[in-house]
Amino acid sequence: MNLLTFQTNEELNQIGASIIASLVQTKQNAVLGLATGSSPIGIYQELIRLNEKGYVSFKNVRSFNLDEYVGLPAGHPETYLSFMNKQLFDHIDINKENTRVPNGNAENLEQECKLYDEMLADASIDLQVLGIGHNGHIGFNEPDQNLHGGTHIVTLKEETRQANARFFDSIDEVPKQAVTMGVGSILKAKMIMLVVRGADKADIVHRALTGPITTEVPASLLQTHPNVVVLLDKEAAKYF
Ligand code: GLP
């Protein structure tokens, strides 16, 4: 595991973006696993800049997002599809038909999960971008006695709904369920880039990466992956 600590957000964003950009430039038809949340936003902004300047093109890239809320109306600003369009896809030369975000409004959600897994099996992710929740979740794989390998429907923990309430008018509007890629699919990515910012994540990221490997801290399973790069700002790196 390669742990990099950055003194400034600019440096973190530049290195994160250049890791993604090098892959996209060198690998024909690269497949990216993408994440939402505040952690990757600066990296996406840097990718937009590199794309505008012509240093990297996403024309042949395919992408799969980790997760999506269940039940938010299509076009709602807090769907993860809206997030991805706003934060990245609308500003780069990617073909949107090559981007996938689970459909949290599918009539048959079980079927949607199955379809997503079939697409993932065909594609095989080269680089998965990840954030971490305060409780150690990755994607929306919440701490539990058992974890799922594949895409599945999850009931969000109260603490996760509270953490994400800042994006909604009130906690009541935060969906109670989500569709998420499973930990098995995440670990199948050839490379994983975990991005963690802020003092409030210092304890969980330290526990996840140095503590016991346990389903009660889903991110701790990253310790079993052979090719993980962790980008930490100096606040999140406090305990390393
Ligand atoms: C959400 C997402 C996760 C993300 C996490 C952390 O719950 N489903 O994929 O990693 O939040 O978000 P943030 O980066 O805003 O702290």
From TrEMBL:
Catalytic residues (positions)? 67 (proton acceptor), 135 (for ring-opening step), 137 (proton acceptor), 142 (for ring-opening step)
Keyword field: Carbohydrate metabolism, Hydrolase
**Which residue intervals define the domain Glucosamine/galactosamine-6-phosphate isomerase in the entry?**
16-226
The Swiss-Prot or TrEMBL record describes its family as follows: Belongs to the glucosamine/galactosamine-6-phosphate isomerase family. NagB subfamily.
The protein's gene is named nagB
Tell me its EC number(s), please.
3.5.99.6
Q: Does the keyword Acyltransferase apply?
A: no
Q: Which reaction does it catalyse?
A: alpha-D-glucosamine 6-phosphate + H2O = beta-D-fructose 6-phosphate + NH4(+)
Tell me which domain of life the UniProt entry assigns to the organism this sequence originates from. Bacteria
The record, for NCBIfam families, names: nagB (TIGR00502)
GO MF term list: glucosamine-6-phosphate deaminase activity
Q: What is this protein called?
A: Glucosamine-6-phosphate deaminase
Q: Which InterPro entries match?
A: Glc/Gal-6P_isomerase, Glucosamine6P_isomerase, NagB/RpiA_transferase-like
What span is annotated as the signal peptide, if there is one? none
Its annotated pathway reads: Amino-sugar metabolism; N-acetylneuraminate degradation; D-fructose 6-phosphate from N-acetylneuraminate: step 5/5
Q: What does this protein do?
A: Catalyzes the reversible isomerization-deamination of glucosamine 6-phosphate (GlcN6P) to form fructose 6-phosphate (Fru6P) and ammonium ion.
